[in-house]
UniProtKB/TrEMBL annotation:
<dbReference type="GO" id="GO:0098552">
    <property type="term" value="C:side of membrane"/>
</dbReference>
<keyword id="KW-0654">Proteoglycan</keyword>
<keyword id="KW-0449">Lipoprotein</keyword>
<keyword id="KW-0732">Signal</keyword>
<feature type="region of interest" description="Disordered">
    <location>
        <begin position="172"/>
        <end position="256"/>
    </location>
</feature>
<protein>
    <submittedName>
        <fullName>Fasciclin-like arabinogalactan protein 14</fullName>
    </submittedName>
</protein>
<feature type="compositionally biased region" description="Low complexity">
    <location>
        <begin position="220"/>
        <end position="246"/>
    </location>
</feature>
<comment type="function">
    <text>May be a cell surface adhesion protein.</text>
</comment>
<keyword id="KW-0336">GPI-anchor</keyword>
<dbReference type="InterPro" id="IPR033254">
    <property type="entry name" value="Plant_FLA"/>
</dbReference>
<dbReference type="GO" id="GO:0005886">
    <property type="term" value="C:plasma membrane"/>
</dbReference>
<comment type="similarity">
    <text>Belongs to the fasciclin-like AGP family.</text>
</comment>
<feature type="signal peptide">
    <location>
        <begin position="1"/>
        <end position="22"/>
    </location>
</feature>
<keyword id="KW-0325">Glycoprotein</keyword>
<keyword id="KW-1003">Cell membrane</keyword>
<feature type="compositionally biased region" description="Acidic residues">
    <location>
        <begin position="199"/>
        <end position="219"/>
    </location>
</feature>
<keyword id="KW-0472">Membrane</keyword>
Amino acid sequence: MSRSIAPILCTFLLLAATSASAFNITKILSQYSDYSTFNELLSKSGLAAEINKRATITILAVPNGAIGDLTSKSDDVLKRELSTYVILDYYDIPKLRSMKEKTAKMTNMYQQSGKAAYDQGFLNVTAKDGSFVFGSAVKGAQRDSRLEKSVMNQPYNISILGISQPMVTPGLDGTLAPVSAPPPKATAPSSPKSSPPPSDDEAESPEEEEAESPVEETEAPSPSEDADSPASSPSPADDSPPADVQSPPPAGSSAGKLKVSFGLFVVLASMVAAF
């Protein structure tokens, strides 16, 4: 009994999973006349068939009155642009309000094309003035497509949100210029910085400087022969007194005694004469 029920149960679960994940975006949008032009563009570009293969998806739909120049795009460019309106996750208004951050980044279907560059495969949603604003995550892109309402949702498979105007993702028509990488920063040399080069007035050769401002050279006094040669000992002639100065006679000589006696005699004679 249990063996016969098992295959039936598996088949039922498979059919239930298939019916839950499969939907037809064309039939769904056909119920909302305000988005009939957007629905036609999805079918014209071939994107509707790819959307129907998804199990979980969110579509940002533009109403007929704000569709703008999307109708004038070629099928190739139109498919690229409309694929940025398809978010690869389920978002309804309650889930948007539960975001922890004021701005969130979402992956769109163009990211899986293998041609996305410079964040073309991402959208930014920002909580602003009690509502939410969508726009391309490409740097410098406008983000002014405001959430207007929830068109329909089937948790957690498909959600269709109505936005005020088309989003613009730069470069989907091939006009996005590649962004060049900034030049590498020059590393400072390890050696000490050299002094700045001299100016034209200072950059003169040494010969010119010597010619313009000669330096007076003073000859060093040549050393005398006396300075080079060792000092000679004084000669006896230098120590002798002058020739006209006579040295006193030695005390023990007879001539000296006679002169002393004569001097005493003269002194005594003077004293006697005085008396």
